[in-house]
Amino acid sequence: xxxxxxxxxxxxxxxxxxxYMHFLVLGLLFAVVSVTLTLxxxxxxxxxxxxxxxxxxxxxxxLVPILVRxxxxxxxxxxxxxxxxxxxxxxxxxxxxxxRNDAFRHLHTLPLRYIDSHPHGDxxxxxxxxxxxxSDGLIMGFAQLFTGVVTIVGTLGFMLSVNVKITxxxxxxxxxxxxxxxxxxxxxxxxxxxxxxxxxxxxxxxxEMTGNQKVVTAFCHEKxxxxxxxxxxxxxxxxxxxxxxxxxxxxxxxxxxxxLVYTFVGIFGALSVVSGSxxxxxxxxxxxxxxxxxxxxFNEISGVITELQSALASAKRVFELIDEKSExxxxxxxxxxxxxxxxxxxxxxxxYDPAIPLIEGLDLDIKKxxxxxxxxxxxxxxxxFINLLMRFYDVxxxxxxxxxxxxxxxxxxxxRKQYGMVLQETxxxxxxxxxxxxxxxxxxxxxxxVAAAKSAHADSFIRRLPEGYDTVISDDGANLSQGQKQLxxxxxxxxxxxxxxxxxxxxxxxDTMTEIRIQRAFAKLIxxxxxxxxxxxxxxxxSSDMILVMSKGKxxxxxxxxxxxENRGFYYDLYMSQFYNEEDE
Length: 585
What we know:
Blueprint: H1 9-17, H2 21-53, H3 60-107, H4 112-117, H5 120-127, H6 129-162, H7 164-185, H8 188-211, H9 213-218, H10 222-248, H11 250-274, H12 281-323, E1 343-350, E2 359-366, E3 371-375, H13 382-389, E4 397-402, E5 405-406, H14 412-417, E6 419-422, E7 431-432, H15 433-437, H16 446-455, H17 459-463, E8 472-473, H18 482-496, E9 500-504, H19 512-525, E10 530-534, E11 546-551, E12 554-559, H20 561-567, H21 570-584
Parallel strand pairs: 3-10, 3-11, 6-9, 9-10
Antiparallel strand pairs: 1-2, 1-4, 4-5, 7-8, 11-12
Helix pairs in contact: 1-12, 2-3, 2-6, 2-12, 3-6, 3-12, 5-8, 6-7, 6-12, 7-11, 7-12, 8-10, 8-12, 11-12, 16-18, 20-21
């Protein structure tokens, strides 16, 4: 079924609800009890009316037991309705919980290509907003369908027991109501799907703008940002208005048809009473009540169509995410418990777009403990090279090996455990300082966490925080400076102490004095370990064992700093231009 969930969203939702069918069955039983008692009440009411309008004195003594039974029916009906709602809500929330868990779990299995090529706000909208739409639709849908179906069937049975001919009048007119509801609802799905897509676009834009508000403000783009937001919001308003207006035609249309049903029942029933054909006034009253109750579910079901269509449109978007193809399974691949740190790159090629080559014919042999720096202009393939090392992307040609093992024959998790990574863009989670440092090693002791922080020169500023290592920070570390956030990320890797390191401009957000201390700490950390350093400031990688100079996806030069300067090639021009720029500054 996986891979086809989005094609049949309703069937897919029911598939997720299957484990909780016992709650559905219980809900149906309580619905039967509630509807049966509700339908039995008009019979008692009719009997009571006949006792009051019969010839001679009204039979008040006979009315007392009827009133008692009506009171008991009211109490049991209320209890049954409450229990039915409890069961249907239980099914809904458990089903949505499972779908949301699967969606979020699946996000972790998707190739990085999917995450990079889709707006994060849209993904967020699918996992949160669309889930809420499904939940609202299911809660209303289950409750209305349960009571609606049972009420229709039960009412028909009670009406047939009172008068067959008038019941046939009701049954003949009913299909008209169904036809009207189907005709209108058939066209609402497309509108609600467009609404969900536009809502995801709006969420994505808001997430983008709020996450970069400082940049928006710095470049005075508030007006442009508002105009873009207003355009999407206006488009969402128009689509929503069309969807709601079109779907809202269902209820009044079916109510009109139901009004006709009630009118015909009243006319035929009155004629039967007047002609003395065996129908009493009390029975006519009972029949009119049944006619109203019979048509009511159609109104309710037509009213819930709006929610159901919206829920199905949202479900389609959620299941499209779940249907996305995961990374190929690596459960049967070899394990890589540890490594020496020898990396061999043989004739590697890679491109994000097959029509636009990026890396071609890349060859490299890196020995254990070597410090390799990667430099080059923006877009030359430095970050892509790191992505290939970590198996965030797989090569399209050639091989990358660790200690002689092709990394495509090893579990991705094991490959990534061999690297400690510090990126230019910091990432911190909501939690304490200690929890963020221990993100790389959940079993780390407080002493080990403090030692790692000291090695990263983060201990001093941490102890100045209100709660020290127990200070809670927000998910983006808004209450810390950029340099402090970077120090925590470095401490996280120092706690891990992996066989190999990847430093992508790791000290770019740190002041000069702190950077000197960090470089000393890194020198201690990388001793004996293979390390890859992506750098823009060439002054930070002068002492590297090997410098790879990349341009247009290829290594155009490699060697030590002194060798590359002697060659007076691409690196020489790059270094001298940066050196003179620094002098000018």
